[in-house]
Amino acid sequence: MKKMRLFILCVLICAPLLGCAQQSDTTLKRELMINNPTILMKTTEGEIKIELFADQAPLTTSNFLDYVKNGHYNGTIFHRVIDGFMVQGGGFTPMMKEKPTKAPIKNEADNNVQNKRGTIAMARTSDVHSASAQFYINVADNDFLNFKNTTPMGYGYCVFGQVISGMDVVDKIKKVPTTAKGGHQDVPSKPIEILSVEVVK
């Protein structure tokens, strides 16, 4: 009987401690999300608000914010639009002139964040670590773009944020007619311009 009482007492003591540990962990995760920066992208089709995953892709987020703060994206276009796949921008003017960039950054695609609909990721060439300024927003779940291994074919593309409002604007962009222009395919027939990008949180 005494053993049973002792067991019950231990359970009553430990249960609140366990609850505190779980609450602390949940609070930490919530704080990480709250502390993530948010940017507002104004386009000719409407506004898109994006949370950046500074906690999960710190290098990529910092690089992107540098371009935002120096005005790189203002006046660029979504130059590659494929319905059912993604919309890509941040690298060309409406005249399809490529903008100069800083040095490329390390690919953080191994951060376990998936290329799901509504996420933003860095575009790159076949060189794994070649991303600089261009980005894309997934308009579908593109699991084949996720990190699988460290080989050139398996490295994937780094997701560093998600659309938190304005996905209807992204869906509008994905539906526009496209053509070939300036040596590129899938270019919107009428330029979809990024008017400005600013940090709002």
SSE order and pairing:
Blueprint: H1 2-35, E1 38-43, E2 46-52, H2 58-69, E3 76-82, E4 86-89, E5 119-122, E6 135-138, E7 159-165, H3 167-174, E8 178-181, E9 184-188, E10 193-199
Antiparallel strand pairs: 1-2, 1-10, 2-7, 3-4, 3-10, 4-6, 5-6, 5-7, 8-9
CATH class membership: Mainly Beta
CATH superfamily placement: Cyclophilin-like
User: Can you tell me the number of structural domains?
Assistant: 1
How many strands, which pairing sense, and closed or not: the largest β-sheet? 8 strands, antiparallel, barrel
CATH topology: Cyclophilin
Main sheet strand line-up: 1-2-7-5-6-4-3-10
Overall structural class, as computed from helix and strand content, comes to: alpha+beta
Termini separation: 59 Å
How much of the sequence is in beta strands? 25-35%
- Bin the helical content: 25-40%
Radius of gyration: 22 Å
- Which residue ranges are poorly predicted, with pLDDT under 50 across at least 5 consecutive positions? 2-32
The number of distinct helices, counting runs of at least 4 residues, comes to 3
Shape: globular
Task: List the helices and strands in order.
Answer: HEEHEEEEEHEEE
Judging by the overall fold, what is the CATH architecture? Beta Barrel
Rounded mean pLDDT score: 89
Verbal overview:
This protein has 201 residues and is an alpha+beta fold. The chain has one domain: Cyclophilin (Beta Barrel). It contains three helices and ten strands. The protein has helices at 2-35, 58-69, 167-174, and strands at residues 38-43, 46-52, 76-82, 86-89, 119-122, 135-138, 159-165, 178-181, 184-188, 193-199. The strands form two sheets. The chain has an eight-stranded antiparallel β-barrel. Strands 8-9 form a two-stranded antiparallel ribbon. β1 (38-43) and β2 (46-52) form a beta hairpin.
